[in-house]
Task: structure prediction
Amino acid sequence: MTQAVDQVRHHREQWLDRLRHLADQVTKWSEAQGWTVERARKEINEEGLGRYDAPSLTIHVPGGEILLQPVALRVIGGEGRVDLRARPTLARVKLLPTKNGWGIMTDSNVPLRQPWDANTFVQLVRDLIS
Result:
């Protein structure tokens, strides 16, 4: 196995570890609100990284559902993207990895300058669902 293949695998595993941590964090915050969380796997196929299964969540909240769905590691302008999407409103924000956790970007590519924590998550859910 070449060093390049090992590096790709390592990079993909780091991404998956980050996604698992995010899913665990969001599950904990959701359950603290009394919201039901369903875990699933989303198959992603990325050029150069291959096919892999990433964790995704469906969170049942009053008035609808929130979907936490990884998009890809290799995205334009960054290293990874996860969508936080509401049903039935179809409103969405994008979560982008930062050195200190996750940054929040609106659909119009305006950064939401709030820390990624339980309070921000709960407020985002309420805003997305209404």
In short: Residues 3-129 form one domain. The chain has a mean pLDDT of 93. The first helix runs from residue 3 to 32. The longest strand covers residues 50-61.
